[in-house]
Amino acid sequence: MPDNPGLSIQEPVEALITETPPLPTPPPDEVPPPLPPPPDDSREFTIEEANPPPRPIGAPPPKPTARVASTVGAAAPMGPVALGSAKANMVSMPHPPYPYEARRMRQTGSGKFLLHFNATGAVTNVDVVQSTESPILDQTSSLTFRRWRCRPGVLTRVTVPITYTMEGAQL
């Protein structure tokens, strides 16, 4: 009999301990499908001179043709020119992209921009004549038009209309 009457000694019990499996991962909250990637519209308009046809073997090289030098300011028109009549004198006209943010917000609109060219044919300033009513579209247009180039001394100002639809930008 034990010394303490309230205590009783029991025989050891063999126990089998098993781990409970982890709870299954709950399904994720409904995630919207990813937005489509922005369009890759890297169209640029570049005027290149045609390569002359190959000359026959043994033929003498062609004589160089003289080019008439023109004064820079003489050929430049005084007022702004419409884009249609200026295209022949453009060297580079990168196409404005449709910004991803504007596409996501379904922004569209039409506007007009006035491009100022210096004597070397580079754009020095872009004025918004008529806004597209979207700051994103106006900024994208202005930044792209700053990369346009024309033949040196030919143009001083060109008016460019642009329309943004969900399909992209049209000049």
Characterization of this structure:
The chain is 12% helix and 21% strand. The strands form two sheets. Strands 1, 3, 4, 6 and 7 form a five-stranded mixed sheet that branches. Strands 2-5 form a two-stranded antiparallel ribbon. The protein is elongated. About 4% of the residues have low confidence.
Average pLDDT for all residues: 74
What fraction, in percent, of the residue positions are helical? 10-25%
Total beta strand runs = 7
Q: What is the ordering of alpha helices and beta strands? A: EHEHEEHEEE
Question: Poorly predicted ranges (pLDDT <50, ≥5 residues)?
Answer: 69-75
Query: How big a fraction of the residues is strand?
Result: 15-25%
Specify the structural class: alpha+beta
Distance between the termini: 107 Å
Summarize the main sheet.
5 strands, mixed
Rg computed from alpha carbons, rounded to a whole number of angstroms: 36 Å
- Please tally the helical runs, counting DSSP H or I stretches of 4 or more residues: 3
Outline: elongated
